[in-house]
Amino acid sequence: MQTTKTMKQTCSILLAASSLLWSAMAVAAARPRYGGTLRLAVKETPATFDPATLATAGPAGLSRLVFETLTTLDERGRPQPGLAVSWQVEPGNQRWRVLLRNGVSFHDGAILDANAVGASLRASNPNWKIVASADTVIIETDTAEPGLPAELALDRNSIFRRAGGKIGGTGPFSIAQWDSGKRLTLKANDQYWAGRPFLDSIEIDFGKDYREQATLLDLGKADVIEIAPENIHRAQAEGRTVINSEPSKLMALAFAGGPKSEDEAHARAALTMSIDTTAINNVVLQGGGVPAGALLPNWETGYAFTFPVGGSTEIAHQERAQSRRLTSWTLGYDASDSISRVIAERILLNARDAGITLQLASSGATDLRLLRISLPSAEPHVALTELSKALQLPGPKFSSSSVAALYSAEASLLQTHRIIPLVHVRSAVALRANVHDWITFPNGEWRIENVWLAPEKP
């Protein structure tokens, strides 16, 4: 009996030791490690990586690896400290005092100060009056700007420095090599104020279509690739590790100007209701989005579902009956995007059923264009303002910072009959198994400064 008891105790000790060993091995496998190069392949071909330009520098969040902003937004669109540690506003929401973070330096070693911050902000906001004083920047605006902290998080408000013909930021990575529109190599910033990143470097290959990207991933020549919205479900079925956003890119039809008569306004309303956006999403995009009747997605505002979506032949005919003139428009689309052409052809057929003639054009001036625009911000007031600029719509008027005021402003923009929302589509990436801590925010923004690579299995 004593022997049996001793054997049981020994087995218990061995089991406990074995459990501790396996636990330690599991923790070690999950522990972030330094080193390695993350290889990305993306579709866009940016001609510049200069934050002073309004042109995009690749997918959302990519430029933030190099150029930081005074504030950042969390996944719910709330402003958080970035290069600024705090901010205060005076009554009237027109004068803001922003306190800068200490101990931050640019990639060339120069210390971040109020003068450098002021110079960057003036370049992107010529209408702002900016006063630099020690570790504080004072921003004065012509009108009340209660959402200024969220606006400061936009990419165009990145803080940068030019010296010796080079441009640098304060981010976790610096530019090692830039081949315009083709390739970007970033190296880790050892002196980064928030701590050195885990990766040694990041290599981004631009201008790769989705098929090329998939091939690079399968051959082990890329660690992260983009997935087209219409291929998200297929990629998941194939066993790929896929991370996707909420519906965050707006596909819409944009007219070159407002309607010239009430007849034309009714014709545009007829076109809006004639388009079967549900079929576009389910058939063409394979469920990669959500049919849209609003500019902003429902997850961001909570009210987008209240706007009617297209696909009502009856209402389309009612609107068309109130337009006494025959209607014919030219519809432009991106010839390099095969999905855009398919969607444009479907819109043409839907419009014909409503008595509206559309002619497709892949180049030249057109009456309206099929566009795909990324959500500019996770904060809805800022997002609506920036979308309006991109779509050349009148600036939205907010009576307050409430949801009701946001709804009223968006409804007013839609009532101009200059924009027809179609679908909010998701963005997605596929990762190799050794890529850890990749974060995609609901608005499609990549947060990859803390990504690390595990050892490849033999």
Features of the shown structure:
globular, 25% strand, 7-stranded mixed sheet, 458 residues, alpha+beta, 6-stranded mixed sheet
Topology diagram in text:
Blueprint: H1 2-30, E1 37-41, E2 71-73, E3 79-81, E4 84-89, E5 95-100, H2 114-124, E6 129-133, E7 136-140, H3 148-151, E8 161-163, E9 166-168, E10 173-179, E11 183-188, E12 201-205, H4 210-218, E13 224-227, H5 232-237, E14 241-244, E15 249-255, H6 262-274, H7 277-284, E16 289-291, H8 298-301, H9 313-321, E17 327-332, H10 338-353, E18 356-361, E19 368-374, H11 380-390, H12 403-414, E20 419-425, E21 428-431, E22 435-436, E23 439-440, E24 446-447, E25 452-453
Parallel strand pairs: 1-12, 1-13, 17-18, 17-19
Antiparallel strand pairs: 2-3, 4-5, 5-7, 6-7, 8-9, 10-11, 11-12, 13-21, 14-21, 15-19, 15-20, 16-20, 22-25, 23-24
Low-confidence stretches: 1-29
* Radius of gyration over C-alpha positions, nearest whole angstrom: 26 Å
Sequence of strands across the biggest β-sheet: 10-11-12-1-13-21-14
* Major β-sheet profile: 7 strands, mixed
Please give the alpha-carbon distance between the first and last residues.
48 Å
Count of helix runs: 12
Q: What is the helix fraction of residues, given as a range? A: 25-40%
* Shape summary: globular
Q: Give the amount of beta strand, in percent.
A: 15-25%
- In round numbers, the mean pLDDT is 90
Secondary structural class: alpha+beta
Number of strands: 25
